[in-house]
Amino acid sequence: MRAREVEHLRTELLRQRRTIIETARRAQTELDALRGAERDPEFEEGAQSEHEQYTLSLLGEAQRHQLAMIDAALTRVEAGEYGVCVDCEAEIDPKRLRVLPFALVCTECATRRERGLLAELEEPTS
Description:
The protein is an all-alpha fold. The chain has a single domain, classed as DksA, coiled-coil domain (Four Helix Bundle (Hemerythrin (Met), subunit A), Up-down Bundle). It is 72% helix and 0% strand. It has helices at 3-36, 45-79, 94-99, 107-122. Helix 1 (3-36) packs antiparallel against helix 2. The protein starts with a helix and ends with a helix.
């Protein structure tokens, strides 16, 4: 992969990282504002609070996972290993990296992994 392509994808990874962090901060600020606002007494406060916590935990978990993937990709860029499949060590198609810049595996290995997972799910348990 050419250095210019890697640098472009590195910039995209940094942009995505910034967006995730800013979105998380805005969500937290909005949630804090909602918690501080007067509540309608007709709402079941316990259920509403539980729903808020559940939504936040899902959002937070997804964001943490994506940040970890982005950080790992940035580490691979710095190590000169970016764009190389961790399974077969072949170059990952630049088209795949443009769509999924933190991809760890090439399309063939990703397909192989998915088939393996599907086979595991379909196996009857004893």
